[in-house]
Amino acid sequence: MDIQRFVTRRKELGLSQVKLCQEICTQATLSKFESGKQIPTLEILNQLCARLGLGLDDLNQGSILAVKTLHQNLAKIEEGLMIEDFLEVRKLLKKINPDEIWVSEDKLRYYYLEGMTNVLTNQPLSKVVKSFSYILKIGDPKHHTLYTYLAYLGEGIFYIRHDALKQAHFFFRKVEGYFRQSFKQSKPDLDYAYLTMAYFLAEYYAVLEEFSKSNEFIKLAWIKCTKLHRTYYLPRLKLLEAENYLSLQADQTQILESLEAARAFAQLNNNNTVLVQVAALLQSYRRLVLK
Questions:
Q1: Of 185, 214, 241, which one is at a domain's C-terminal end?
Q2: By the 8 A CB rule, do 169 and 121 touch?
Q3: Which residues of 140-166 are buried (b: 16+ CB within 10 A; e: fewer)?
Q4: What would the pLDDT profile of 61-84 be if each residue is shown by its tens digit?
Q5: Is residue 239 part of a domain?
Q6: Element (H, E) at 132
Q7: CB-based contacts of 117: which residues, under 8 Å, 6+ apart?
Q8: Distance between CA 89 and CA 117 in Å, rounded?
Q9: Do 81 and 117 contact (CB within 8 A), yes or no?
Q10: Is the whole model's pTM more than 0.85, yes or no?
Q11: Which of 50-54, 60-64, 104-108, 212-216 is most confident?
């Protein structure tokens, strides 16, 4: 990024940092950008450039394609985590150098996905915390963004999977509060994050055997998935729903419909993990029914 061109243009127009950033961002944000310490969000950067009569292309000759590729890879990582294709996720993460990510929101997203990968592949706590520490201590130290709550979500998942319920509850309580406050106002480009929150909140309450709350989050995620056509969430949502129905000893029709839906969506999304789980659950359920 050609930051010097930005600074030169500001000085040519006789604008101080205070004047340029008025009603857009703080002077501290602009100062960090001009000194190369931190890139602001795309929304802020667009507004600053527009005030100077510049476009982002003027500062990023040759880098637009790289940004597009980064966004595509981050989206693939998110999908890979939900279908549990961890081998592909790790390959994609290795292609990204976080030190070369110049948009702060993209960097936050990268570290969230890296941290979540470590959680879901059962890495030690030290490795998990290292990923999320960038978000909580550097990227979002005031804890104002969505990514703080995604980091909390990752830590909550870690603790619930290690049977540390007290610690898990501390994090999931924060995530649920944020989710309920923000879910309906979520921006389309961040819907993937809210879907992830909904799924793991559903899983958390299933572990606690609070199945009505678990099913509530499944329903919220299902509605959002169908609206956005994010089908890769659907196999695990339907599988979790079937497991909840089994625990509640629900009607056989409900259980089988959820399992069949999970299998159909798993086939659609090449989710072999869910296919295996559905087959095993169907087999054990049929044995139980035949007793």
A1: 185
A2: no
A3: beeeebbbbbbbbbbbbbbbbeeeeee
A4: 545 567 778 889 999 999 999 989
A5: no
A6: helix 125-133
A7: 77, 81, 86, 89, 90, 93
A8: 8
A9: yes
A10: no
A11: 212-216
